[in-house]
Design brief:
This protein has 688 residues and is an all-alpha fold. It has 4 domains: 142 residues, no CATH class; 182 residues, Leucine-rich Repeat Variant (Alpha Horseshoe), CATH 1.25.10; 133 residues; 103 residues, no CATH class. It contains 33 helices and 4 strands. The strands form 2 sheets. A two-stranded antiparallel sheet has the order 1-2. InterPro entries: ARM-like, ARM-type_fold.
């Protein structure tokens, strides 16, 4: 009886059976399969083995959507056949390896992947790694499953990190083994260490020092392929948050991330910048933006140093923050004293609303004080007003102003209430009131500023951008809206570019966010008075974004940023003059690291970056270089899928960019998961 490999069907070489699959459950498996053993064992190349087994099991074409649909329709029977054969011929490397390849190919479909996972797919693949003849196909299958796997699948594979690390140490000169392991670890370990819900003990079990050490060893190999290097850089970058101590323990790793800021690939540059910023997340300080009134007044009485005084005079001192704060402070105290005399809460509210739009420090905490003759200590006194502490006057005055009922009065009342919420750190309430106020008065910029203070980046950025276009805007509000634009757009840009691929909407948005952040940072540093409290933060953003966006256009000594460094130094001098503490923020620590190590990082890693970029410019070459190390092109087959039955073209590409194959399965518009039978997603009710 001729084996399935000798049938003359008149069809292409692709597997393309009926899809029902032979029922091996009620027959002697050896009777069906033993007659093919010699032919299977004599087959050369894993792709050929896999295709042979597909025909033998009468499986549909796994390279088409319709083929995968047939797998869905007959999954119980097909899986029973595959499992029976896998169990029966557990000692036959060709059969177990080939079946693992079939399972890996099926796992490209998210629903099939989950069904296979529940039936113990991973535990079946791991034993293949310790058999010489199935090691490569096992690793390739595991890599494919990891690449297309969800969180649960990747977390399960990460449990076998010690096994994968052992392979790397046992076969240090086997590039194919090491490359596939790093690709797998990038997905599996990367998924674990970026999951906020994962406990610290789970991460410790991964042995991250060894993961990072072996990854760095393989990165330095002159024959390392681009697809492995891409994954390795991704793994190193995402390790900096939860494994910052381990990363810092390898100085060369940190310098590599700095050097990658000169890559020709913008995604690599921004991913590296994100990794460097996260490196300090657990050790940084929050910038509280607090000014000590006593230190502020003491500094004013001492007088500005000549260089700072000259800067203020050149900008127009009456528009500088120092003058505005002094003037509003005096007006604030006068208004309170006047209210003691006339008890006119409406007049006080109007004055306070005007002052709030001039500076962040318009409303100071304080009260009417008198000395207790018995204790000799100052005490808050009752002067007959419905408030004792001055900040408590805000909601009371807001009620009085709102009672007048004119549109302008309503705006001022909302400004008073919003400021009160902000001072009490009740930002969600401030943002909620601001949204309602915008429905009535969309041209009041202060309302948008309140919304921009909310934690949600997208909403905050949108509000800040709209606020800058308002007609009713003061210099203080404009400066703070620019500040929020830079911070929100910078954070959004780094986040989007890390998770997107060229051509994706998210990728284009990420670039636009960073360009926007840099533009607004330039506007801020050129227009806003030099004594503004946000100059240090904005200067940090400007320097880091310029380095990330311009890449290798900059000199190794960063001379193009001399003007930015000078402005940063001036901002530091103002901080020191006013006695303001310079907090060790993420941005500050990142900027200090990048600037201090930039030149030495370029010297150590520039050849690597150039080689990486040259391979990345030719995706075909980069992919072939990695695939050539395997026994055959099974890797390409595992990733390939035709758009329609035999009519689409297979497109190779370099992973980890998201164009991993030309598969056109329906994808959830919400989460992006692919499946041949997906029609409506529970998360978004749409497919694409």
């Amino acid at each position: 009886m001729p084996g399935p490999g000798k049938r003359k069907t008149g069809k292409s070489k692709k597997a393309g059976g009926s899809g029902a699959g032979r029922d091996l459950s009620n027959v002697d498996i050896s009777t069906v399969l033993d007659s093919y053993i010699d032919e299977i064992n004599g087959t050369e190349g894993w792709e050929t083995v896999v295709r042979f087994l597909c025909r033998m099991f009468d499986l549909p074409d796994l390279e088409t959507r319709s083929g995968l649909k047939k797998i869905h329709n007959n999954f119980p029977q097909i899986q029973k056949n595959l499992q029976a054969a896998y169990t029966k011929y557990e000692g036959n490397a060709k059969i177990t390896g080939g079946i693992a390849g079939i399972w890996a190919r099926m796992s490209i479909d998210v629903i099939l992947r989950d069904r296979l996972f529940r039936e113990g797919l991973i535990s079946k693949m791991i034993p293949l790694l310790d058999v010489r003849s199935t090691r490569y196909v096992g690793l390739q299958a595991l890599s494919t499953v990891t690449h297309h796997g969800g969180v649960e699948v990747r977390h399960e594979i990460a449990k076998y990190t010690s096994t994968l690390l052992r392979l790397m140490e046992e076969f240090p000169d086997d590039s194919a083994v090491n490359d596939l392991v790093i690709v797998t670890l990038a997905h599996a370990v990367g998924s674990v260490i970026t999951d906020d819900n994962v406990q610290a003990h789970t991460i410790r079990e991964l042995d991250m020092p060894t993961v990072l050490r072996l990854t760095m060893i393989n990165i330095r190999k002159p024959d390392a392929p681009h697809y492995m290097l891409s994954h390795a850089l991704q793994l190193l970058s995402c390790s900096t948050l939860r494994c910052y101590r381990e990363v810092k323990a390898i100085p060369s790793l940190v310098k590599l991330l700095v050097a990658c800021l000169r890559s020709a690939d913008l995604t690599v540059r921004c991913s590296s910048l994100g990794g460097l910023v996260r490196l300090f997340h657990n050790e940084c300080e929050r910038d509280l933006h607090v000014k000590d009134p006593q230190k502020f007044m003491a500094a004013i009485q001492r007088g500005f140093p000549k260089n700072l005084s000259d800067l203020l005079m050149a900008h127009d001192p009456t528009k500088c923050d120092t003058y505005v704060i002094l003037q509003t402070s005096a007006d604030y105290q006068k208004a309170m004293m006047r209210c003691v005399q006339d008890h006119d809460l409406y007049a006080l509210g109007k004055t306070l609303a005007e002052l709030i739009l001039k500076t962040e420090f318009a409303i100071a905490e304080g009260g009417f004080q008198a000395y207790n003759e018995r204790t000799g200590q100052p005490e808050i006194m009752d002067v007959g007003l419905p408030f004792k502490m001055w900040s408590d006057s805000l909601p009371i005055c807001a009620k009085a102003v709102r009672a007048k009922g004119t549109p302008k009065d309503l705006d001022m009342a909302d400004i008073l209430d919003i400021k009160f919420f902000i001072m009490r750190q009740r930002i969600p309430e401030a943002a909620g009131l601001a949204k309602r106020a915008i429905e009535r008065s969309p041209q009041v910029a202060y309302f948008y500023y309140a919304i921009s203070l909310a934690a949600e980046l997208t909403q905050g950025l949108r509000a800040a951008k709209k606020g800058l276009k308002c007609k009713q805007i003061t210099p203080f509000v404009r400066a703070n809206l620019l500040w929020r634009c830079v911070c929100h757009a910078g954070d959004l840009g780094l986040t989007r570019l890390q998770m997107a691929a060229p051509g994706d909407t998210a990728y284009s948005e990420g670039i636009a966010f960073l360009v926007s952040a840099l533009d607004d940072a330039k506007t801020f540093t050129s227009e806003i008075p030099p004594d503004s409290r946000h100059h240090i933060n904005i200067s940090n953003w400007l320097i880091l974004l310029t380095i990330a966006l311009r890449g290798s256009e900059l000199s190794p000594d960063l001379r193009e940023l001399d003007d930015a460094f000078k402005k940063l130094d001036i901002a530091r001098q103002f901080y020191e003059f006013f006695g303001i503490r310079q907090y060790k923020t993420e941005l500050r620590l990142t900027r200090e690291l990048v600037v201090s190590q930039y030149s030495s990082a370029v010297q150590e890693w520039e050849p690597f970056v150039r080689r990486f970029d040259s391979m990345g410019s030719d995706p075909e070459k980069a992919q072939d270089q990695g695939a050539s190390k395997a026994e055959d092109n099974l890797a390409a087959w595992l990733e390939g899928m035709h758009v329609d039955d035999g009519q689409g073209c297979h497109t190779k590409c370099s992973h980890p960019k998201l164009t991993t194959n030309s598969v056109e399965l329906y994808r959830c518009s919400h989460c992006g998961n692919p499946s041949a039978i997906l029609r409506k997603c529970g998360g978004c009710a749409k497919t694409r």
